[in-house]
Amino acid sequence: MTSPARTGSALTDGSARTGFSRVGGDVALDLLNTVASRLAADGGRDLLEGYADVVAWCRACEIVDLAEAAALLAAADRAPLDAAAELVRVRDLREMSYEAVMSGDGPAGAQLAASYREAVGEETLVRRDGAWRWQASELGLATPRHRLAHAVTRLLTSERLGLVYQCEDETCGRVFLDTSPRRNRVWCAADTCGNRNRVRRHYYRRRQS
C-alpha cells in the first residue's frame, strides 16, 4: 500500500503527478489508462501512487473542481490512513472496470454494480441549470470513486462500448474510443506509440534488406 504521506497538500506543492494521458476519449477509459505500460511483463507502472494523485487526476479530468480538490486534500491530510485505504478502493474500481470493459468479465460487472449502488446511496437528485443530476450529499474522500463509478457505468451501458479498442503496441495497453471515420485507428497516439512502432518496423526492414 502506498504510504499515506503522499496525500494532502501535494496537489499544490508540486509533488502530485501531472500530465496524465487523456487519449481515451472517455473519462472511464482515461481511468484505465492510469496504468502506464499495462501490458509490459512487469505489469506496468501505476500513476496513482497516492491519494493526491487521485485528486490531481480527477481535477485534470474535471471530475472535481478546484474548491472540491482543495477540500479533498485537506480531508486527506486530516485522515491519511483513510485516504490510503480509499486509494486502494479507487485502484480496485479501475481494475474491475478494465476487466469489465475489455473482456466482459461477469464478476467484475457484478462488483461494478455494487460500486454504483454504493455511489447512488450516497447521493441525491438535485436540479441545477434546468437539469436534474446526482450530487453527493456531502463531499468526502470517497466522492471521486463514486463519480467514477457513475462514469464507468455510463460507458458500459452505452453503444460507445463497441468503439473501445486497445493500442496495438506490445506493451502500452492504453485504451481509447476509435471514432475515426474508417474505424482503423491502431495506436493510442501517433506521436508516441505510433512513431515508436514505425521506427521499429523501419529498423527491422533495413536489417532484413
UniProtKB/TrEMBL annotation:
- Identify the residues that the record assigns to the Zinc finger CGNR domain, covering every copy: 166-206
One of its Pfam families is: zf-CGNR
Which InterPro entries does UniProt cross-reference here? ABATE, ABATE_dom_sf, Znf_CGNR
- Which domain of life does the protein's organism represent? Bacteria
Protein name listed in UniProt: Zinc finger CGNR domain-containing protein
Organism for this UniProt entry: Arsenicicoccus piscis
